[in-house]
Amino acid sequence: MITNTSESLRHSEVIKSGLLIAQGLKEKSQNYKKLLTEVLKWTGGQPLLTQKLCQLIVEAEDSPPVGEEAEWFDRLVRQQLIEKWETLPELDHLRTIRDRLLRRNQRSVRLLQLYQRILRQEVVVANDTPEQNELRLLGLVVKQQGKLKPHNRVYEAIFSEAWIEHALKSQKSEIEPTDTEFLRTLAELERKLLVSQVEILSQADNEAEDEGSAQALYQVLREVTAKVGSLLGADRATIYLLNDDKTELWSLVAENEEGEFLDIQVRVGEGIAGQVAQTRKVIHIANNVYEDPRAILVKEYDKKYHYTTQNILALPILDEHKEVVAVIQLLNKLQPEKSEDGSEPPIKPQGFTKLDLERLAKCVVPIRRILESCQSCYRVTKKLRATAALIEATRSLDQINLDTKAILQRVMNTAKKLLNADRSTLWLIDHDRGDLWTELPGKGEVRCPIGVGFAGQVAEAREAMIIPFDLYNHPSAENAKKIDEQTRYRTCSLLCMPVLSPDGELLGVTQLVNKRKPGDFGEYNKEEWPTVPDFFKTSFDKNDQQSMQVFNERVGVVLQFVRTHETLKQLAQVEPQKAIYNALAVLSNSVLDQSDEALYNALYYLLSFISLTINKLLESEHTTIFMLDAEETGFWSLVFEEEATNASEIRISANLGIANKIVDSKAVQASSKPSKLNDVLIHRGITSKTISSLHNLLLFPVLDHRGKVIAIVRSFNKFLSLDPSIPLAERIDTRGFTKADAEKLQQCTASMLPILQAFQSFHREIRVIQEQRQAIDPLYQAISFVSQSSGNPEDLIQKVMQAAKKLTNADRSSLWLLDHQTNELWTTIRQSDGSWLETRVPMGEGFVGKVAQTGQAVNISFDLYQHPDSYMARQTDEKTHYRTCSLLCMPVVGSDGELLGVTQLINKRKAGDFPEYDSSDWPNVPDYFKVSFEEKDQKDMEIFNNQVGVILPGITNRSRNAQK
Known about the structure:
The chain is an alpha+beta fold. A hairpin with a 5-residue loop joins strand 13 (494-500) and strand 14.
């Protein structure tokens, strides 16, 4: 195989992981060197395969008998890899090789025939023909002493002579497709894509990406690209789709030198494809491509990927509004016939023909339809990936030590990973000094005045700032240029956003610098400054901003917890009598107007602070505090379980087992064999993995001033040293916890007791809040009711109508949805026979249309007939014999700010058990209609509509796709 940078990096990674591999092999067999030799015999040193085979050995259920390592390993490879390679996710590069061998008719036949000769040990002199180069770049063959040989046994076993024979028969049976056959193929691909799209969308409710469905999407894109290339006889074909911001083209099917499919971006205006997207005109270079000034990047990429472009055709795919949807780029027109000796590439020097364009024109509409669906589907997969990354990132934030500097470092790292940024900084507000500060590795504390620089401007305006590539063109870039000159770092793009507390207070600013293109690129090289590396030539987009908005909201909650944590440390110094009241005040302020999850998280972090303090005091590994509940029948505590995003409550009975014994005796309990004690107090909140690592135990009852147990402190593993670099077995104090440890805790009880009592009180408050919400909070009930919609618009409309009526005590309610195609609002009303009647209102017409047009709520008090715009309502009332007296009409907006619909409430009713409106009394006004919607109704509906805006896009998207 040709040596290249990517391959060298992979070899380097294998070398770095050599110690880990050797350790695993040593544990598997004393003759591990023999196993490693067998691995290399099979892989020929190919990094990915070498790692995979080593992994197979380590994970094998049995071990090789001494002296039979080779035979055992051969069976293992054939059973676990050769027979299963098409189903193993990590072996995608093998499926890429398969696709490359089978992707074209004539070219594929020549490629297969050449590889067949090499497998049969025929002498094939290396003369760098395109077919030879392609086989070498795929990794199937290597050049040895001027001849081509099979690269390794894995490839020989998978792409064997039998496989080649079957592939050749299949390829030779195919002929160049006719236009009719091609259109039929596109129709099948479109059907396949729609199935894949429905599968992906169905995963959105779980906030997790189905890799199989996403892979199906990529496969459709590959097949469409291959079919277009085959139709026009191109050696290579790439389809680029335009992003939402219309600033970049992206492709999932462009190939690198190893035949892998890449997710790459090209800026509009750059390269051949970028110029076509910008001008919306075809570019055809029939020959002498490298001499054309438009093809500078083509020459650079060909040199990088060892390819020769002789002619090129790139054309835009436009929608019905003449806007660019995608760009198709074709390289090197092939002759349909084979060359006589097969040694020269069959490329037409005159390039693509008018007939080629005519054939493609016939297929533009179905191709465009497929690509538009791919674009929509790809947006969903990107959002799902972002959601998964957010879950992981915010979960890690929840579990870090509540230390400001630790949070700075973790936020910087998780944000970089989340958005593929090169650098990330979290600036915190210093209210005392009136500036921003952060901690940078190697530089210590750095400060930034409010209003100065991009971070300072965002802090001052409290609005996000997104600057695309190239930032140097921005009018405020002078400060960045000066800093870059000092640091020898090139700033190219930026995303800067405020971090607010749940109460809206500014806590800091996140600053992401230099969006990186996808791929395995190295660090920025200061020696090349001010040159811009290619992987920096991209920008943060709206999706990045939305992801960071969610991320920053989570950071804001964590930072507020930090402030609470630091305040609590100060509370430990005040008199015990005041501590309980102050602690409650801090807790209440920190979680004001938040969800149950936030309430529990606040309590968890503060409870964890006490637990960590006890760990240090006793030199123990792990401490849990179990608090007695208000009924004095059970103990509770809070934990973060694996992969959870919020703290959860765990409980044990106070009337059973060791807990009951402690409550009765009020005596300290200790054990040197806790793992053998079968009691819920020992095992609750401990994973099965850690049970076996428990060496000793201390159970300490915390008593109040009346001598009653209010909590039990459970500590595991008494240490000789807290130094984490020392192995666990050497740190354990085999003597276990002593009487002196209990005395230390007893001395702390006086200062600890008020705070624990505060926790008890706050926990009782949480339970009361939950009970009140379930029993009396109409808003909570309304949101819960709507969240249970079955998944179709009609059901959602009905549930919103019912919930909103009950929430505000309105007489009638309706949800109008926006139809973007017709610029109308529509809703459905169930008829007496069970059928649905659809009603539509043009944008701007009536109260509903005006709210949709302006985005502003309308609240008209009794009597609506006195309103200057009530003419249409009067006309409708005259037809229906219903009297409209008051109205509350409000927009429903999605998370991205886009209008989704309008809720309309009619006739606020007085409290009481009044009958339904009787149309025979029209136009008289019943007394229970002589009332207006209040400010609270409007605030409740604003929160309610926000929740509808979260639920609505998923349901309407699924409905549209089901209709397709």
